[in-house]
Every structure is written in C-alpha cells, then in structure tokens.
Design goal:
Shape: globular
Distance between the termini: 63 Å
Oligomer: single chain
Number of domains: 2
Number of helices: 11
CATH class of the largest domain: Alpha Beta
CATH superfamily of the largest domain: HUPs
Bound molecules: Fe4 H S5, zinc ion
C-alpha cells in the first residue's frame, strides 16, 4: 500500500480511518492528532507546567516525547514501586525512563520511590494490608495516584498527564460497564478538572490513539521502552477484556473508537452527573478523599491510624 500523502511505501495501515502513511507522514500525523486531542478537550496551554507520569512503556514515553516536540513545559515522573519477582521489573523500567530523560536536555525526571519514602515496596505493603489481601494490584493505582498528586502539589505542576491509550480507556470502560460501576463511569474522562484541594488537573492526551498507533510512533521515533508487562499483570482481568475487545476491533475496525467516543458524548450530555461523589480533604495528607477522615493511602500505614 502507498502513503496517502506522498505515494511512497506505507509503513502504517489504519483500518478504522482507511488511512495508510509512510514513516515520515505517520510521524507528523501522530503528533497532529495528539495536538488535536489536547485542543478538543482544552487540556492545557503553553503556560501550564505539565508532569507526565512515565512507566518506561511505549505510551507514556511517546507522550513525553510528543509534548516536548510540541514545545510544552513538561517533566516526567517515575513512580518506583519496587516491583521485583526476580526480574527487577521496576528497576529495569526505571532504567528506560532514565535513559530517555538523559537524552532530552531541558526536561527533568522526578522520581517517587515508595521504598525510599515509606520503607516498603508495593509487595510488602500489600502483604500487611487487609484491603489488598496480598494482591499488589489492589493498591497499585491508589499509591500511584497519591504519589502523582503529592509531587504535582509539592513542585507546583498545574497539569498531570498520563499515557492511557484508546485500548486502555475502552478496556476500563468495558470493565466499569460490566460491573455497572457508575461512580467510576462518572469519573472516566479525558480531563478531570483541578479540584478544591488545589490539585492539578488530570489529562490523557493519547486517549483517542489505538495502542498499535503509540507503539508505531515509539518504534519509528527510536524510543527505547520496556516491552515486558508487569509480572502481576498476567492475572489481571483487564488483559482478558483487552483481548476480547481486540477481537471485536479486528472484526469491525473502529469499534473501540465508537464505544469510547459515544460514551464520552453521553457523559458530556450529563448521563452520569448524578453519580458525582463529594470529596473532602484527608486529615493527614490533605489530598481529596470520599472517606470521612483519612484517605485510603494514609490508612495503609498503621502509624497514621
Ligand atoms: S496494577 Fe498490578 Fe498493573 Fe500495578 S501491580 Fe503491576 S499489574 S502495574 S496493569
Ligand atoms: Zn508519505
Ligand atoms: Zn491522606
């Protein structure tokens, strides 16, 4: 197939939009599409200080790269949870992030290290926490969210960006619908505005890009990223949902974009407004929580009780 723009051999074929592009035009297309999403959802401007949470994977590193290319003030945050089942997962992911940051002068890499800051790795916290029942995944999102908010607040970032792609968003949506978690549905959005506690606004500039599109961007841009999944991912139900949705997408190209896009439209029209939960400040760390006193993160540490 030939590139629609220049007629050279295409390297990327995108069935949902019936579009084929060569290496050079794919790169430009991806950057333009990201720019368009940022504009459509009014995510941030050039005066904002953006902190992008990076895992060492293709999505978050591609996002950091594109935002730098677009001239935004953007730094990275790596949250080291000390995940290690003999394969040094967190340590190796961190090395990819550090290498990326070292090759881009003018941007700063910040590190939040759970073990260094709180004296325990994710697995260790999961072991003694009732809420987790030994399962690290039950705490992972909570700890990451807390770390992101803390660094954004301490270092005066106005925007927190994550690399969630369309496959991630459609998978989360599918899971939330399957269990009718209306509270989560109400909060699943490309932009979550800054809240009363003075926390940064949260954005997902790649939420309309298929996973294969971010992978192609990373590879063509020469970004080295960790390919392995987290060792705890194997049992995650999200992987089964993702697999299911991928089959749907293969049978009818564009299905994920429609599923997610139409959900966003319904959401904008107020379908989930009644589900909005009222938040107050945690009495220990000051971050927003729906619990009456301590937030879920502060309750992880027995000394706080
Ligand atoms: S939740 Fe669980 Fe993931 Fe956190 S501990 Fe790893 S697998 S990274 S998708
Ligand atoms: Zn071309
Ligand atoms: Zn707290």
């Amino acid at each position: 197939m030939k590139c629609r723009q220049c007629g050279r051999t295409a390297v990327m074929h995108m069935r949902p939009y019936r579009l084929s592009l060569c290496e050079k035009h794919y790169d430009g297309w991806f950057v333009d599409q990201t720019k368009r999403t940022i504009r459509t959802y009014d995510m941030f401007g050039h005066s904002d200080r953006i902190l992008v949470a990076v895992s060492g994977g293709k999505d978050s590193l591609s996002l950091w790269d594109v935002l730098l290319r677009l001239g935004y003030q953007v730094d990275g945050l790596y949250i080291d949870l000390g995940i290690d089942r003999g394969e040094r997962y967190s340590a190796r992911s961190r090395e990819f992030v550090e290498r990326f940051a070292a090759s881009r002068p003018g941007t700063t890499l910040r590190i939040a290290d759970l073990n260094a800051d709180y004296g325990e790795t994710l697995q260790e916290v999961a072991r003694h926490t009732r809420r987790a029942r030994g399962k690290p995944c039950a705490l992972c999102g909570l700890i990451k969210r807390h770390a992101m908010n803390r660094v954004a607040l301490d270092e005066a970032y106005t925007v927190l960006a994550t690399g969630h792609n369309l496959d991630d968003e459609a998978t989360a949506l599918f899971g939330n619908v399957l269990h009718w978690q209306t509270g989560y549905l109400a909060r699943q959005a490309p932009v979550l505005p800054a809240d009363s506690a003075g926390l940064a606004r949260k954005v997902k500039p790649l939420c309309r890009r298929y996973e294969r599109e971010t992978a192609a961007y990373a590879i063509l841009a020469g970004i080295e990223y960790i390919i392995d999944e987290c060792p705890f991912a194997a049992h995650a139900s999200s992987l089964r949902y993702k697999d299911l949705l991928n089959r749907l997408e293969t049978d009818s190209p564009g299905a994920l974009l429609q599923f997610y896009g139409k959900f966003l439209k319904q959401r904008e029209d107020g379908l989930f407004e009644a589900q909005a939960v009222e938040l107050h400040k945690c009495s220990h760390c000051g971050q927003p929580t729906s619990a009456p006193d301590l937030c879920a993160f502060c309750r992880l540490w027995p000394d706080n009780e």
